[in-house]
User: Which sequence fits this backbone?
């Protein structure tokens, strides 16, 4: 994983986190066109689908077809969520470049999301991770509800840190810490990073901010300026949300975050006009307007 010009890496979530909660099914060809357009924007990594139960998340049921149809751009990593070995079988069939396992810091959220306790989910990941390694696939590990849970409220930083360490112990290459319901503040971010960065190298750290309370850009700038975290998940247009976190809005808009970093002397390597063009492709299929502030200005 390289850093563009000593700068920042934004990881595109729109085709997965963005589209997973759309209650109208989007045609596979529209997803393929969207991902191909996003591939031309300077992004280095795109989470393009999820090999999860179609009963749990109907909108991701065509992920195999999406991966089989996209024209892949050299240098771009196309990743997918994998909850168990069945998901890994499909991910291997789809020739993904990277997988992401996902658990949480809150027991209640984890039960609702993947029908397992945190411990059960980690045990489930053990064979997934060893088989992914045999197939030379890099592995991301998500820790959802690392700050707040929609069911349990505030989560202790120590609890989120413990799950991060357990995932690293299992062999994931990277952790993505999730503010699933978009409620964290820069103070919460500092509290967790003060703990995590004692043990987790920066190159293994990504942050995943949803933007429900409008705090995501402030949180990301805090993590970058104060701690030099340089990998951030974001969703073009601000599309999305988790179907198991009611009321939560999408990830921070990728174009808003890129603008904030560039305005603060960061380098993202992202062409915002091309992001806008990619959003024009998917716009007719979405039921909700984009939440991005920049979209109106591009
Ligand atoms: P389960 O019901 O406990 O699983 O679900 P099971 O093993 O008992 O199987 C039940 C059925 O699902 C069986 O089918 C399996 O074959 C099928 P049936 O016999 O009933 O016809 N099944 C599968 N089908 C396709 N792909 C699979 C798969 N596994 C089993 N991989 C399970 C457990 C984990 C599968 C389910 O709960 C699930 O798929 N959950 C996914 C939920 C999800 O995708 N949530 C959104 C993504 S996470 C997120 O958004 C947060 C994040 O963005 C970070 C943040 O914001 O914090 C990452
Ligand atoms: Mg998310």
Assistant:
């Amino acid at each position: 994983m390289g850093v563009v010009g000593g700068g920042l890496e934004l990881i595109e979530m729109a085709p997965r986190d963005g589209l997973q909660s759309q209650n109208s099914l989007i045609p596979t060809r529209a997803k393929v066109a969207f991902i191909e357009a996003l591939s031309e924007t300077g992004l280095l990594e795109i989470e393009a689908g999820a090999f999860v139960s179609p009963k749990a998340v109907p909108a991701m049921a065509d992920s195999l077809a999406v991966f089989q149809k996209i024209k892949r751009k050299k240098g771009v990593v196309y990743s997918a969520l994998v909850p168990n070995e069945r998901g890994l079988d499909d991910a291997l069939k789809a020739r993904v470049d990277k997988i992401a396992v996902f658990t949480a810091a809150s027991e209640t959220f984890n039960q609702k999301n993947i029908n397992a306790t945190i411990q059960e989910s980690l045990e489930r990941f053990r064979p997934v991770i060893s088989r992914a390694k045999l197939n030379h696939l890099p592995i991301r590990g998500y820790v959802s509800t690392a700050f707040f849970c929609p069911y349990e409220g505030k989560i202790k930083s120590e609890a989120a840190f413990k799950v991060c360490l357990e995932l690293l112990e299992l062999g994931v290459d990277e952790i993505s810490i999730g503010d699933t319901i978009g409620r964290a503040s820069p103070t919460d971010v500092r509290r967790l990073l003060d703990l995590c960065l004692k043990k987790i190298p920066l190159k293994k750290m990504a942050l995943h901010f949803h933007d429900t309370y409008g705090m995501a850009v402030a949180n990301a700038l805090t993590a970058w300026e104060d701690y030099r975290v340089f990998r951030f998940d974001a969703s073009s247009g601000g599309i999305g949300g988790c179907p198991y976190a009611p009321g939560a809005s999408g990830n921070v808009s990728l174009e808003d975050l890129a603008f904030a970093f560039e305005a603060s002397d960061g380098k993202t390597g992202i062409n915002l006009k091309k992001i806008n063009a990619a959003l024009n492709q998917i716009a007719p299929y979405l039921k909700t307007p984009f939440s991005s502030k920049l979209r109106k200005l591009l």
Summary: The chain has one domain: 9-297. Residues 118-134 form the longest helix (17 residues). The pocket of 3-hydroxy-3-methylglutaryl-coenzyme A (ligand 1) is lined by residues 17, 20, 50-53, 56-57, 81, 83-84, 86-87, 102, 113-115, 142, 144, 178, 180, 208, 210, 242, 244 (CB under 6 Å). Confidence is low (pLDDT under 50) at residues 1-6.
